[in-house]
Amino acid sequence: xxxxxxxxxxxxxRSEHTTAVVGEVLYCWGGAWEGLVGSHDSPTKxxxxxxxxxxxxLSGVWSSQPTRGTPPLGIIGVSCTTINNNIYYFGGYCGxxxxxxxxxxxxxxxxxxxxxxxxxxxxxxTKRGFGGMIVMGSEPQQLLVIGGEAPISTITQYHHQFEYxxxxxxxxxxxxxxxxxxxxxxxxxxxxSVSGQCCPPTSAFIIExxxxxxxxxxxxxxxxxxxxxxxIYLFQLSHNTINWECLKQGAILNDGLWPxxxxxxxxxxxNGVSTSPTLVVIGGMEDSTSE
Length: 291
Known about the structure:
Keywords: Kelch repeat, Repeat. It is a single chain. The protein is an all-beta fold and about 290 residues long. The chain folds into 2 domains: about 1-120, Kelch-type beta propeller (Neuraminidase), CATH 2.120.10; about 120-290, Kelch-type beta propeller (Neuraminidase, 6 Propeller). It has one helix at about 45-50, and strands at about 20, 25-30, 50-55, 60-65, 80-85, 85-95, 100-110, 115-120, 130-135, 140-150, 165, 175-185, 190, 195, 200-205, 205-210, 215-220, 220, 225-230, 230-240, 240-245, 265-270, 280. The strands form 6 sheets. Strands 9, 10, 11, 12 and 13 form a 5-stranded antiparallel sheet that branches. Strands 14-21-20-17-16 form a 5-stranded mixed sheet, with no helix packed on it. It has a 4-stranded antiparallel sheet with strand order 1-2-3-4. The mean pLDDT is about 90.
């Protein structure tokens, strides 16, 4: 069906955006698209980011929804996750120079009101984008942020348990496996301890929540060159320690085909009533030439 002919809203072409499902609606926000001004802040940028695109999964129709409040300045490579009716957004690339953010924002999808939980600041959380974020814990719930790319000039604290590798071809850019936890009850960031086979510095990967304290990570761009990987990691949060396990090909009985190396892909977890959680992955890049 030609929705454009019917005068219905057309979703603009974009990349490096975020998507999140709340109820029967898929929300799409941010990203890089033609015509977006590469500035720190401008009326044009605010106009673009003050609306969120919504896809109704029942009707199959896109619409543009105006939001209230102040949207984040980081718009490219932003990490996002959901809790009930709220979508949380962390960090992201601003769109100009080496400007990255470490702000944490929340969008209430019932009121479409933005709320800044933590502003961008020089704290223990590295300003970065192209990482991942999921919800962990139950009471209190916590946001776990992993990895990404960051400008060297804005790093205020190098944490000894993590790595920061300079990216080839970029004067002021590193890839990291830094991990941070935000407690939604206290409103405080903490830096966890890590154990086991921790992931290397990685960006443009996927992470999904398996249960309240366990998650999975697959693929991404690694090392200084940004080569793609097909590594799969399981991680589990216990108190303030994250234990990592790297799954090797053949380690799982009857695991079938092993996925290809890739980065900048998409994923979801499907939880069946009588089956184990299934990770579904689609798309991505198979080399680092376009990084």
